[in-house]
Task: inverse folding
């Protein structure tokens, strides 16, 4: 008889708490539906379902201890179930492509994983309440990944995430629940405060007539997805639908959303020099500035953009670079029309991501920084074989086990990305989609690294609806696995996780 070594009841009970509280954000779109005179069933029914499921799971009898295995199981189940439950309003609304279950689950998983890839072709057929729900699940996904990254992944040592700068860092992964509760409250206040600041600034631009179509609905919608580095927009032209002032204002909030929230917390508390002492933050700023300048130079030399002035060129370059580097996925222009060099620079930005401990996705700058330092160390020790030279991050030596974790995680990410690309190409040919290699490789990267828009048929002002249902299912799984750092999902498929 096989004995399970995982206390699944603990994981399911905590999952019940997550599902129970999911009913609260559904109240926002519900109230907007009442105001607009839209059907309320798409929100009332999911509220009842999530409450019933959550309360039922919370009634499971178990102790309150959560250890490493239970944490892995809870993390994987939470993201999966919220993605599935979040699709119910889309299906019940029954409008457009989102009425199809596969499309609805794709859209919901894209939201909760803060990817921003959409299958919507016609925004006009969807009510404001449904569009608000899209924005809200992305905002919830950004908040959830912050709590996950700072409270759980850093302690589970997933791919070097334990290097995140937290004052109470510990490798003890036992009894996580009290810490999660305290951290969640801190992160919630900080996250909500930054979102309100963004919404207030955007709405003020609308009131002043600087961005005339930036009403309260659009201000709140774009504030939520900017801070969450998510990328959904209720506008078919994304942020390109608004005045330049609104575009400039959104840039710093995308940047902040991809910054380690622990650094933001201490900065707000008066430790203003802390970000500058953080090597990852300096690396982040350098990449953003460098890539933006390089992009501006490429746009200046693009013969199709010679009519753009200095301000417009700087805005187009900076916005698109920050958006894709931080994995937000907003757009102000159809960069499909840009030169090959500009498009390949944006493609390279997809693999970077922001800082660890932020709402961003992709491989993240912390890992790339460690990889670069390791390469430099290896070059030095090749010349000086007797030398002992540890890799240091912000003055602190990084242990070799963590470096191996970082290399393993990065290599695994690139392998999954490569396999996903091959699948997209093969299934595209099978379904008669006729994808180019660049379209396929960018679509695989945009979904697995949670970027959102790709190139070609899945460009910034297009959608993923042309892909086959099979490809959409695989892309949904890619978004899910990529968002929670791969390991918490893959480890569930090893027999030793359950038995040893």
Result:
């Amino acid at each position: 008889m096989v004995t399970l070594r995982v206390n699944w009841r603990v994981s399911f009970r905590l999952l019940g708490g997550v599902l129970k509280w999911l009913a609260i954000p559904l109240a926002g779109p519900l109230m907007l539906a009442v105001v607009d005179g839209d059907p309320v069933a798409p929100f009332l029914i999911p509220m009842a379902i999530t409450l019933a499921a959550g309360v039922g799971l919370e009634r499971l009898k178990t102790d309150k201890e959560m250890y490493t295995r239970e944490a892995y199981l809870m993390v994987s189940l939470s993201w999966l179930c919220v993605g599935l439950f979040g699709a119910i309003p889309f299906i019940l609304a029954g409008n457009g492509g989102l009425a199809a279950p596969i499309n609805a689950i794709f859209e919901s998983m894209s939201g909760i994983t803060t990817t921003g890839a959409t299958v919507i072709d016609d925004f006009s057929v969807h009510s404001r309440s449904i569009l608000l729900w899209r924005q809200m699940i992305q905002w919830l996904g950004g908040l959830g990944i912050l709590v996950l990254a700072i409270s759980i992944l850093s302690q589970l040592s997933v791919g070097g995430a334990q290097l995140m700068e937290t004052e109470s860092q510990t490798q003890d992964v036992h009894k996580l629940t009290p810490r999660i509760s305290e951290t969640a409250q801190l992160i919630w206040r900080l996250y909500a405060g930054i979102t309100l600041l963004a919404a207030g600034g955007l709405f003020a631009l609308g009131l002043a007539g600087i961005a005339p179509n930036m009403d309260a609905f659009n201000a709140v919608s774009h504030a939520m997805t900017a801070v969450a580095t998510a990328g959904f927009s209720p506008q078919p032209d994304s942020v390109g639908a608004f005045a330049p002032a609104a575009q400039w204002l959104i840039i710093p909030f995308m940047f902040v959303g991809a910054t380690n929230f622990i650094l933001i917390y201490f900065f707000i508390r008066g430790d203003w020099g802390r970000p500058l002492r953080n090597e990852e933050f300096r690396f982040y700023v350098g990449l953003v500035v460098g890539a933006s300048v390089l992009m501006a130079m490429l746009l200046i030399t693009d013969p199709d953009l010679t009519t753009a002035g200095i301000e417009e060129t700087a805005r187009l370059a900076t916005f698109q670079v920050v958006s894709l580097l931080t994995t937000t996925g907003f757009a102000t222009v159809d960069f499909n029309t840009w030169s090959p060099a500009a498009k390949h620079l944006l493609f390279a930005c997809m693999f970077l991501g922001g800082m660890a401990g932020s709402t961003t996705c992709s491989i993240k700058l912390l890992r790339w920084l460690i990889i670069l330092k390791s390469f430099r160390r290896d070059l030095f020790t090749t010349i000086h074989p007797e030398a002992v030279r540890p890799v240091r991050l912000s003055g602190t030596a990084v242990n070799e086990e963590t470096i191996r974790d970082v290399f393993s995680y990065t290599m695994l990410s690139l392998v999954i990305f490569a396999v996903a690309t091959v699948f997209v190409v093969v299934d595209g040919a099978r379904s008669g989609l006729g994808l180019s290699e660049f379209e396929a490789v960018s679509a695989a990267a945009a979904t697995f690294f949670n970027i959102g828009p790709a190139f070609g048929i899945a460009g910034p002002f297009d959608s993923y609806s042309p892909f086959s249902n099979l490809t959409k299912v695989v892309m949904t799984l890619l978004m899910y696995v990529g968002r929670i750092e791969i390991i918490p999902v893959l480890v569930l498929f090893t027999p030793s996780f359950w038995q040893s």
Remarks:
- The chain has 21 helices and two strands.
- The two ends are 13 Å apart (CA to CA).
- Residues 177-207 form the longest helix (31 residues).
